[in-house]
Amino acid sequence: MTDSKYFTTTKKGEIFELKAELNSDKKEKKKEAVKKVIASMTVGKDVSALFPDVVNCMQTDNLELKKLVYLYLMNYAKSQPDMAIMAVNTFVKDCEDPNPLIRALAVRTMGCIRVDKITEYLCEPLRKCLKDEDPYVRKTAAVCVAKLHDINAQLVEDQGFLDTLKDLISDSNPMVVANAVAALSEIAESHPSSNLLDLNPQSINKLLTALNECTEWGQIFILDCLANYTPKDDREAQSICERVTPRLSHANSAVVLSAVKVLMKFMEMLSKDLDYYGTLLKKLAPPLVTLLSAEPELQYVALRNINLIVQKRPEILKHEMKVFFVKYNDPIYVKLEKLDIMIRLASQANIAQVLAELKEYATEVDVDFVRKAVRAIGRCAIKVEQSAERCVSTLLDLIQTKVNYVVQEAIVVIKDIFRKYPNKYESVIATLCENLDSLDEPEARAAMIWIVGEYAERIDNADELLESFLEGFHDESTQVQLQLLTGIVKLFLKKPTETQELVQQVLSLATQDSDNPDLRDRGYIYWRLLSTDPVAAKEVVLAEKPLISEETDLIEPTLLDELICYIGTLASVYHKPPSAFVEGGRGVVHKSLPPRTASSESAESPETAPAGAPPGEQPDVIPAQGDLLGDLLNLDLGPPVSGPPLTTSSVQMGAVDLLGGGLDSLIGGTNFVAPPTAAVPASLGAPIGSGLSDLFDLTSGVGTLSGSYVAPKAVWLPAMKAKGLEISGTFTRQVGSISMDLQLTNKALQVMTDFAIQFNRNSFGLAPAAPLQVHAPLSPNQTVEISLPLSTVGSVMKMEPLNNLQVAVKNNIDVFYFSTLYPLHILFVEDGKMDRQMFLATWKDIPNENEAQFQIRDCPLNAEAVSSKLQSSNIFTVAKRNVEGQDMLYQCLKLTNGIWVLAELRIQPGNPSCTLSLKCRAPEVSQHVYQAYETILKN
Amino acid sequence: MIHSLFLINCSGDIFLEKHWKSVVSQSVCDYFFEAQEKAADVENVPPVISTPHHYLISIYRDKLFFVSVIQTEVPPLFVIEFLHRVADTFQDYFGECSEAAIKDNVVIVYELLEEMLDNGFPLATESNILKELIKPPTILRSVVNSITGSSNVGDTLPTGQLSNIPWRRAGVKYTNNEAYFDVVEEIDAIIDKSGSTVFAEIQGVIDACIKLSGMPDLSLSFMNPRLLDDVSFHPCIRFKRWESERVLSFIPPDGNFRLISYRVSSQNLVAIPVYVKHSISFKENSSCGRFDITIGPKQNMGKTIEGITVTVHMPKVVLNMNLTTTQGSYTFDPVTKVLTWDVGKITPQKLPSLKGLVNLQSGAPKPEENPSLNIQFKIQQLAISGLKVNRLDMYGEKYKPFKGVKYVTKAGKFQVRT
Fold it and tell me: I want to staple A707 with a disulfide (CB 3.0 to 4.6 A). Which of A143, A418, A734, B401 is the partner?
């Protein structure tokens, strides 16, 4: 008597037979027939042809039959909208049924019938059900609003359902509250601008109360909603945290992770000195570890989130290293994640254990896992200096195994170790060279070539080794070709006498026989370098390389902060903000961690950037990210770093001679012609690093401008806060137009493109008058200067301080925020001159309490000089008097928004200080005008 | 929220689909099949897969894939937890969660899925509420139904649905009132070549079977509650009481449920009850190797270790194994390369061992890695952490229930590296 009988078919057209049965008089037969229809539906068979017959069975007292018909309706109503109307009457009737189960069922099903025509009929019953006396009906109706909103958002708004839904947040039944929150969150997600979940301390309190009493699923919705709230101070944050912590012991892992999200976010507001902060940290570890004993799928999601958490707050799990040890029957996706976290937690204290584990993993069966384990050993060496030696010897052991992929992976990481600890482990080069022939992966080949080129002077047969690669030059991947080119040029610069032929060969291969533009360009550059100035070539090619940073794949801090706000969501699994992958380009609101409140401000540095990034350490290393090796390979054209040159001067002298001779013969003797300029790509200046820009392009730098005083450029956005983009700039005003002179420097290892800029609303409505024009992509170490015209017609919002400007700059990598103060004199307009009468009248007109007095010290200028200096910045002298040996200057200026400022400047001959009295209807600008005076007069 | 669900069997047939919003075409599963192909092993299919328009979040349970389709940002853990709950419910209703059971009860399955999720929001997932709405199939009921024409769909609102204790229904009545607790501890451990413990922890659970009439209010106390510092609770437990008094106080659900799960990780509390002596070696340039393992008890606190099984995934180059054992029986599957040795009980007088020759594929290089041994065992009447229930008190009802506690320790993920 099983349901599988419903799947059996007869020869005589199934649909035909079902139709007959559905129209049977016998109740039982009808029900069986509907069951058969449903069974076909479950396997994706199209039974929509039976629509009228099934709907006819709807009018019944038998609840099971009714439910089955509803199931059918939900699936097929959309394909038969006209027929679906037939069902409306029954729904409306059922919504009045005395049995709350039936009322709820009706409203629930109606919402699932995604037919526009039906929605109109749904409004009245839904309105009733939202106010139903039975909470079961109310909670079902709450979800129905979300369904309806999905079908017809306008209707929901017009009918006022959203307000009713908001009222349900204060419902007496916790389940109703949870569903209302869930429905509102879903609606809010599709309309990020609508301020649906207006959270305030009262509603938060209601949510926290409901949190204790609703179902586990409701708890998830409520916690996710709480996470969007920003408490007004640290006290409120703490009290919410206290009420959320019991959720960490919930059996449902989704509840636990949502609670972790709330705590991680609100913790940001708590002072680290607080006892409670420490308690909270301790409480977070056990639940996170417990997640790892759940099913592998849950473990995977948990691990992805833990990866974020250990980057943000490594102290939470620093003692829990062992739980991340890999078990051999873990699924591969769990293994790889665990490995990642192990490296993040590796420290001097536990490195011995970690290394022992990693070595164990390196002999496992799964190739991907083994590779990652080998790479992890290298990362440990780079991260924990004390362990480097042990790591290197472990890697050598692994190379001895001769397992092909292990050897290749080991060579790739050893190259990184060389970069991190130069001149320490080069003794192993001989061992590496033994394995040259077994390398068949581009990455490993490129790494090996890099090593040979870099240490050419220590490897006796470096030329032979490189030559062996050269034979199959055109079959190599670009990565290897580029590396080979660089490697041979390095070799040539180090051992010029023996390797001329080799370098000629590779240059001609790269420039003449290759159609890869990157390779050709790099070939030409080397060629020109070598032919014009071998010393410069040496300085460029053999320049000291910046050290690589410890953590090569840390998530950049602002992104990390954003992702912390998305713990437990898909964004946390992909480690990308939702804006990067949510479909439909709905304006996703960027979330950011709340800043610490003033009352709890302790040793933390005050942040001006809105994204509250934690202060990073001063990097004397390059912030490498992404594929480290790729970056390394592109770095060969690094800038000539300041610091001691690589070779001593006497050696250099000799080298110059040798090089000169070598090059003469290279160019003259062998009928080599320097490449014709036409063959050099026109965009030579653009795609190469600044090291070369310095050599080729000497025109950078903006000449000083006449007009208003221009402050020297200051760094506004340091590279470490913006993934390598450094922005410095200043403001200028020239003949009536304001502009922002920017200097963008790419200090990262990847090319930057797609620049754009935006200002936050500010006191004087400053806004970019044109888009940010960066014509060519900005390659590593390149700098561009841009003058961005500004207008003063943007939207206005009073800022604190008044002249604060918040700027967002976007490129292909991310969006960065910074804020800067602009000097007020860029806003002094050219037509700001008053006549005397006007001046007098205005001066009298402005009440005395608006007058502010300032001292300008150390300004030994006479009245003439002052007057002319100020005039060039649009501060006009209206009158001049001499009173008791003092010069009195009466001046006026007008701001772009029409505010007049009147000034009286008293200069005493022989006294370097002068007194400035300012009168203005908007006294808050006085301070800034005074600052403008000071800047102008002192420069 | 959860948009659709597809159930897929191991041979890649979609045998059930359910849509909670609009219908999503089956073709979306192609992305899943692609990932499955790439993963080679069914257990290695990544649980979250992104496709151009949807996300697929899946679990693998009882040789079935539960693949859910997601369209908006949603907590993946919520989806995974829910899918496991669906599988649990099938298990609960049909005794097993298998393709056959689901196909046999397809209508009930459909009704259940509809009841559990509304527009992607979980509606009723508590077993006792579901059972009031949709009665589980029994042979008797289906016979009765077919005679009387009554249905197995409840037509009144489940009582627990909206109360503060949604996990318990009202009006429960038993003639024999019983409350039984099983304390089950599993040891997860990694033992290295030399026999020292790399990592060990205990995953414990207390499962309860409560058949008590009315609305009993129970308090369970322990001799040594300090052991429990990392605990996950069933929602019925009053967290405040636990925080202040370390007593589990709760109104229990009716029937079987997991009361708490806990983790004991401090190494000195985790005793390792067995040791393994092993010597596995492969000779260079020869097509054979030696295999020798002996297993013995460590500290077993006077209890016998039983149900011992050793599973070894041998390297791919192993063709066959010729072994002799002093106890139990062994099998070697030359296709999957899995060696299984069913040992049984350990008697300390004569330690069980398994030794012999390993035949390797001739000409192949000798395996780099030695296989890990996976060990299963069981110790009755012992919670290895030392956890002991002190007493169980009942308030709110007058009758005297039967009470009982059973302890058992098992191997969880217990592996020995060689």
Answer: A734
